[in-house]
Here is the input.
Amino acid sequence: MKFGREEKLFAPPQRRRKTKLNQVQLQQIEEWIEENPNITIKEMRIRIQEKFRLNISKSTVHRYMQKMKFSYITPRPVHNGQDKSKQEEFKKKSQWSY
Here is the structure.
């Protein structure tokens, strides 16, 4: 591959897939995310369907959210049988604890 030809890897703008959402709709989605940062992709998809009458897949909604630099981060779940006192006891006896 010749150097300086990276632009050939991407489709020209006229051949790229057009977005279903306009700028006003994208602004509304951003506001929803700012109102509730813990909104799920599924809930966002339902809101888009009800408000804008557009049927968009979950992966498309996720892509829009990523483009807006938002991400859905959840903490690791805690097992219901987990005993915190046993964990602390194990940490104290561990040879690697300092």
In short: The helical segments are 23-35, 41-52, 58-67, 84-93. DSSP finds four helices and no strands in the chain. The chain has a mean pLDDT of 81. The CA atoms of residues 66 and 72 lie 9 Å apart.
